[in-house]
Amino acid sequence: MAVAITGASGLIGTALATSLTAEGTDVVRLVRRPATAPDEVSWDPAKRSVDMKALADKSITAVVHLAGAGVGDRRWNEEYRRLILSSRVDGTAAIAHAVADLPGDPVLISGSAIGYYGDTGTEIVDESGALGDTFLAHVVRDWEDAAEPARRAGRRVAFIRTGLVASSGGGAFGKMIPIFRKGIGGRIGSGKQWWSFISIDDEVGAIKFCIHNEIEGPVNLVAPEPVTNAQATKALGELLDRPTVLPVPKFALRVALGGFAQEVTMSQGVSPGALTAAGFQWQHPTIEQALAAMQL
């Protein structure tokens, strides 16, 4: 079995590649430069091109597409908003065409986000939830639509709509840790907004579950139940043995998360309907377990 991964050097991609390799699965890394190792294949998402000859020679059974400009890496000016969108649409289109043209019947596990649902307010939604009306919601819509060539070719396609990943290596939680270590961490705003999280171990486990099981369409990669922002920040403060009495200053949040700050301040109550129905088992179903698994 061989699994090709885009974004293999990122937070999720690195953890996934390590786990698959440990299980004896061949991992093929798609890299945006000339391939220099036997386990690499070159691709250029901006040009929507993949070295198909090299990829076809790898006997690929699944492609996990995780590449895209980081939503929390910079401030969201107009130029960076265009990059966030184009890096996902162009990259996904390239990978979808590649999956459609590969021999055999490879599955496509395409990265996505719970940002699709926008601000859910007091509601908790599953995969049937409506499209939100935010920048990231519209990005996710176009991102998922770009995989249509693989679907038209009859390939199984799963869109992994990932929540806030609990990891010390990056993501919203990773970037908030320094704030909390300084003792200035706390709830954001009222703290009543929903946060839908998942541990990095469960993220990897869910992706592998999607590879091996007949799941397709949108799949929410989140823990069984969301928590409020106040509950999440209280748990992080207790783990770090730091007070969480005062709200996080808005300027500190903007510095830590950039444009992604807007996404973490709104309420996103999301449940994993597809994973639950398929029988997936979480290692860290609670926020306390997910944060403890970060091994700070």
Layout of SSEs?
Blueprint: E1 2-6, H1 11-22, E2 26-31, E3 40-44, E4 49-50, H2 52-56, E5 62-65, H3 78-101, E6 107-113, E7 124-125, H4 135-145, H5 148-152, E8 157-162, E9 164-166, H6 171-181, E10 194-195, E11 197-199, H7 200-212, E12 217-221, E13 227-228, H8 229-240, H9 250-257, H10 261-265, E14 269-270, H11 273-278, H12 287-292
Parallel strand pairs: 1-2, 1-5, 2-3, 5-6, 6-8, 7-14, 8-12, 9-11
Antiparallel strand pairs: 3-4, 10-13
Helix pairs in contact: 1-7, 3-4, 6-9
According to CATH, what is the class? Alpha Beta
Q: Between the first and last Cα atoms, what is the distance in angstroms?
A: 34 Å
Query: Would you identify the CATH H-level superfamily?
Result: NAD(P)-binding Rossmann-like Domain
Which class do the helix and strand fractions yield?
A: alpha/beta
The major β-sheet equals: 8 strands, mixed
The run of helices and strands is: EHEEEHEHEEHHEEHEEHEEHHHEHH
Shape, per Cα inertia axes: globular
- In CATH, the architecture is 3-Layer(aba) Sandwich
Number of helices: 12
Question: Please, what is the oligomeric state?
Answer: single chain
Supply the number of structural domains. Answer: 1
Find the CATH topology. Rossmann fold
Poorly predicted runs of 5 or more residues: none
Radius of gyration: 19 Å
Helix content: 25-40%
Mean pLDDT: 93
